[in-house]
Structures are given as C-alpha cells and as structure tokens.
Fold each of these.
Amino acid sequence: MDLEMFHKAVFVIMFVIFVISNYVIVYKFIQISKIKKEINRSSEKEAYKLITKLKDSMWILDFGITSGPLLGLLGSILALIESFANLAERGISNPVVISKSIGFALVATAFGICLALWDLVFYKMLNDMIRNIREEAKLIFAGGN
C-alpha cells in the first residue's frame, strides 16, 4: 500500500486550512476596524447586528485549532507505517535510516501543532477584540460614552 500519497495529502489539507485561516484572520481585522468606526454612527440594534456578524467564520479558526494536531498525528502515523514497511523490505541494519524515517514522520506532527498554535493565538486575539467592541457598544448605548 502506497501511504506516501496519503501522507502528502495530509500536508496539503493542513496547508489549505492554514491559507483559509489566514484569510479569515485578515478579513476579521478589516471587519473589526470598519465596525469600530460604524458603531458610533449606528443605532443600537444595528450595532449589535454588526457585532454579531463578527463571530461569523470564527469557527474556521476553531477548526484549525482542533484539526491541526490531529491531521499532523495522522500524517506522522502514515509516514511511520510507510517507513517501517520499507525497512521491513530492506532489513533493519542501518540506524541512520530509521532515524531519518522517524524524523520525517514527526514533521507532520510539528506542522499540525504549529497550525493549531497560529490559529489559537489569533482566535484568542480576535475574540478579545470582539468582546471589547461589545463592551464599548454597551457603554455607548447606556449613555456612558
């Protein structure tokens, strides 16, 4: 069974999630800056509608946080299975080959963890910004300016 193709597919999937996550991050920063300006000019109902829109697509970052390590682990497992199958065919005589195979397999786990950490940092940051905007809107509409 050629698991190398599946291992590469896991990397492609993680890369696609990374690209989509970065798009969401940039989009959210732009959206937040626009909404901050619009809150002062809008009615209370419109302001809360705008703030609610900020939560849209945050699930994509949450998905990256959750799926990154799992996909990385899957990639590592597939690479290890492929490596051990190749070693079994050739015989286990060279520890350098084993070390390279295991090192290559762990790259997928590292990439998955990096993806999750990247998404987590921005997920927390954006959630804090959204919470601050919500609190600011409460003060504005309560008359506390």
Note: The CA atoms of residues 138 and 144 lie 8 Å apart.
Amino acid sequence: MIEVQHLTKRYGQHVALDAVSFSVGRGEVVGFLGPNGAGKSTTMRILTTFMAATSGTVRVGGDCVFENPMRVRKRLGYMPENNPLPPDLRVGDYLKFRARLKSLANGEGAKRVNVVIEQCGIADVAGRFIGQLSRGYRQRVGMADALLAKPELIVLDEPTAGLDPNQVRSVRKLIRGLAGEHTMLISSHILSEIEMSCDRAVILHQGRLLASGALDVLMAKTNTAVVSEVRAPLADVKAWGEKLALGQAECVEQPDGYVRCRFANATSADAREKIFGSVQERGWPLRELTRQVPSLEDLFVNLTRGKEDGK
C-alpha cells in the first residue's frame, strides 16, 4: 500500500530525512516511531502530498505522490498533529462541510457523516461547537473527518498526544476497531501506545531509519533479563552472580535482607532453571525468579544508544 524509497528532505543545511526507505502492506496497522524531531511528521506530510521531498520516491496504492497527488488524496484520510479545527462550527456542520470538500454527493455525504459520527463515538456532541470540546473529543472529530470518504489508507500523526489516560484508552479502542478495515500508519513518540495498537513498526531517529518489521521480531533481537531475589549476604550473591556467567549481574541489597539480582543479558533458554538449581544447591531462600520480556521502549533505547551525539 505504501512504498517509500530513499526519501530525503533538506531544509538548507539541515537534513530532516536521510534516504529513508520502508513499506506498509495493505491492511496492516503500522506504528511510525521516534522521538520528537525524528522526522515522523515530515515523512507523513510528504506521504499525504502536503509537502515536497528533496529526493526519493513515495507511492500509495501504486500512485506516485508527486506525479498523481489528487489520486493519492482520494485513497487516504489524514489527521495531522494538533489537527486544526474551526472552533465556531458545530461538529455535525463541520463534518458535512468536509464531506462536500471531499466531493461526496449530498445523499452519500449525509450518510457517511452519520456513519462516522457513530463510529467515532461523537453522537452526543454532534450539535456542540468544536471550540467547546475537550481535546479527546476534538481528536475523535479529526478521526471522523479522516474516515469520511472510506479511505484505503488512514494516516494519524500523534493521535494520543496531550490526552489524559481515559482519553488515550478511548482513542486506542477506536483505532483497534478500525484495524482490519483500513491500512493504518500511526505516528507516536509514546512507544507503549504503539505496542498496544500495532503489529509492525518503523523506527526513525534523527531522520534515519533504524529498524522496520513485525514488533515480535524486532523485540526478539533485544536481550531478555532474569531477576531473582535471594536471602544471602550481598558479597556472596555478587560472587555467585559472576560465577553463573549469565551476563552482567546487577545485585542490590533490599531493606529486609534479600538481595535482588538482575542478569541483564540472560539470553539462555534455561537461564531460570540454571538459577533455580544453583540457588537450591546453596540452600538460599528464593522469593522471586522472573524473566523480563523486553518492551518496545527497551528496543528503542538499545537502537538509539550511542547515536544521540552522532557516535
């Protein structure tokens, strides 16, 4: 559905995007990740025909965004970050206006407005002025707008930015409900949100592509850790941790006399079994033995470590 090849964007001497390439298959829900300033919004503006690139190619559904921008626009629905909405229009009137701009016929436009109002859970505020709405509801109005023309591709730029936890959960539920019906590209610097909403990820950092692929495959490349808590002298536990040779052992004494030991690179499949057997041999009380599965945040930290200053 989306094919990006060697996409580059320069502002004078500043390189916002540096030969970025990735693809999104039809029907996929893909997270577009990176810290603020990584180049996510720039890529999305180019992808949605709102900005020209310095070089490279971008295709949506086989159409080049530079050669056939109007054909591309008919294929997608876009909600930009800090979506600009007119505060003095009522929600229903705004969506009817947007339906006309999208060339939806009167009967079809009215039907689609009713559908997206229900789909996005904004029926109870359809008669209110947009300026009176909370940020969470305004985000929903923006998503309703993006859905009006039944687009093949939905592009959402920071859809949960600035929302409170309840609003985030509500928007996340809406995104999950749309999955399967549309191809979706969702940008965020909140990694936990992408982890809960998407199956694949594209990760940018300082305008460069760091990784792209299925979340489970990407996170499998990040080492797991094993944590144990045993009751024994700290010095003995440290010596034991080094002897086990399961990776770097970080041992910290707890106030109640137990020592918490984290094996930071315990990649062996039998790491817990080996630790348990060794603790039993020593006769130490054991109250915790857990495997810490890496998160998307762990993956991102590992990928960007040492790159902040161009190292």
Note: The CA atoms of residues 31 and 201 lie 5 Å apart.
Amino acid sequence: MTGQGSTSGTNAHALPARGPAQPIGIFDSGVGGLSVLADLRRVLPHEDVLYLADSAHVPYGDRDRQDVQALTLAGVNWLREQGCKLVVIACNTACAFSLNPVREALDLPVVGLVPALKPAVHATRSGRVAVLATRITLDGDLLEGVVTEHARPNGVQVMKLWERRLVPLVEAGGAQSDEARALLHEVLTPALQAGVDALVLGCTHYPYLAPAIRAEFGDAFTLFDSGDGVARQTRRRLEAVNALNPAGTPGRVSVFTTGDPARVTPGVRQLLPDAPTVQHATVLPV
C-alpha cells in the first residue's frame, strides 16, 4: 500500500522524524476536506492534524490528469516535509487521478477516498443509487471498480450526477444559500424522479450540502459519505504499526492554504468554528 520510492534529492534530506507523536496530514483542493477532519477528530481525538488546502488551484474538477497529479503530489509532499506520519488525501477528484502515483512516489502511508457506494448499494430498497461528484471522480477507475464489484452483482443501477458550480459555492461559504438549494433541486430532481433512494456524496465538499438537500427533498434520499470510513481506516493503519499518539490530551489542528489566508479564513471558520488562524504555505513542485 505504501510506496518505498523516494522523491527528488531536494526533498529527501533533513526531513523530520516520523513517530507516534507526529501529526496526521490532510490534503484537499480546498476546504471540503474539513468534513473528513471532523470525522478524524471524532475517531482519533488525541491526534494532531495539519490540514493543507490547495486554495490557489481549487477546484480540481475541471483540470486534466497531469495537472491534478502534479498538484496532489506537491501538496502531499509538503505535508511529508512537515513530518506527518500519515497523509489522508481528502479529495475524491485528487484520489481518482493521483492516489496510486502518490503512493508510489513518496515514502509514507497515504489513505485515499472512494465514494461510499458500497454501503449505499446494500442500503437501497429501490435498487437505484445516485453518486453526486465531479466529472473526474465519476469517470475514474476507483468508482468504476466499486460499481463493478458491488453494484452490478447486486442488480443496483447507479446514476452519475455532477454540477460544477457546487464546489466553488461551498468554498465561498454558500452551502446553505438559496443558490445552493436551487442548484441541488436542478441536479437531484431527475434522480428523485428515477426512483433513487440512496445518494452518495462523492466529494468532500458535499457533506456540507446535506442540510440543504434535506431542506429541499426531505427524507427522500438516504445520504452517504466517505468521512467515517476514512477515519476508521486511518486508525487501523496507525494501530497496525503502533503509531497512535500516546498523549491523552486533545489533538491540535493547524490549517494552511496555498492561497490567500484572508480569503480562505471565512469559509474555514464557517465550516470549522473552532479553527485556528489560517496560515500560508509555499508548496513547491516535486
């Protein structure tokens, strides 16, 4: 699971030692991965966390494979250089293009996301499930593997939905806005009409849209996201190598952005009310 290769010589020297007391890193294209951070803090309350938002390049959904891979590798490597003992790529789009290349390139454990289609397949009563995600995620091999392994053998139909304006809306703090509800009504009404009863939120920004979805559609959809599964997988990976933080005190969170902290802070504070001061990170290509 963890690649044993090295990065370029400029990144391979003077790295901080990685022991149980070192932080977990979380990388996302923006602030959506804070939903995963919330699950990690619940499952692993004593772990310190460094969160890196690549706000200078968000959203990733319209970028090509080479661009997404380069940005993801650079971001994860920056967290590696800060001494993180494990990194979670909390971005479905980044995982669709970059998970395996990053694991092969860097010498640290990397946990990725797959849309939570498997539990949705087992929960649906109508036999119809929808996945709301970016086009890259919807067309990626990770999702197709779950469709092939779980949905098709169980006779479950999977409807793929995307709306490129949703991620920027969440980034701007508009997850509960009238605009969000209007977009969700537009994109999800066909799923409702098709008999979908289980909706997979296949982007880490989208759990923040759950209240708006429920306000617009009531209990028509059971919602699924990957946050809890990723948090538990992270705990299992750390337990397997005796790398859980032994401290009994609450873990500390640090938030960094490749963009302008002043522009990112309002969105972070809305989604994470107890967030610390957002700091700037200079992330160099690998």
Note: The two ends are 21 Å apart (CA to CA).
Amino acid sequence: EAVGFVTGRAGNFLRSIEEQWKTLMFFCEVDGSSGRRNKTYEKLAIFGSVRGRRGAELLVLSAVETKVPGYYSKIRDDVVNRDKNKDESGTWGTDTMTFQDDELSYALGKQGGTRKKLERSSGAIVQYVGHVA
C-alpha cells in the first residue's frame, strides 16, 4: 500500500530522495521465490554514507507513516539503534523526541521552515515521522 506512495509517479519521489541524500535506493524481493513483490511488506535497500542512508530512511519512514499510521512505532527501536557508532568518529547516533499536536505544528513551521532551520543550524538530520522527531 505504501510502496507506490513512496516510489511516486514514475519513481520520482524515490529519485528525489536519492538526489537529496546522495544515495541509491531500490525495492528488493524478500523471499526470492517469485517474480513479483511480496504484498505484505517490501524491503527497501539504501546505499550511501551513514548520514545519507539515515536521512533517506527517515524521509521514507515519514511518507510511510502518513500512509500507514503506527508503522514507525513497531520498528522504532530497530531504526534508532541501526548504524550506531558506525561513522568515522564513532559518535554517530539517533535521538528522538515525541511531540504533542500543537508542538509539532510549531516545530515544523510554515512549509517545514523551522525544521530546515534546525537542520542547518545544528548540522543534524531533523525529520518528523508521525509525532516523533
């Protein structure tokens, strides 16, 4: 259900994420037994730097969460702990914060402006997946 949404028309959404985060992404077969995709869930392979992979992953998860609310909460621990300390300095990690409705709209800002300012000023990846930043 969310695969088409994440892929976008003619793959445009996926390609725009690849360009933004300098990654290569594609959906791959999970069981390999058939020539068609598993409709229960899809595995998305993301190649690139640790930072690029995480930025792309969070953007995809944000899109999936709008289509399948509650999905992120099921995999949150896996996402947060993935690639921990795997950068050159050994300090890579992910912190999260959960927002209430009124806080979320303030934190996003007009057309995501506040989110973008937070990213630029902190050097961190700031993405909202549901009510979690």
Note: The mean pLDDT is 88.
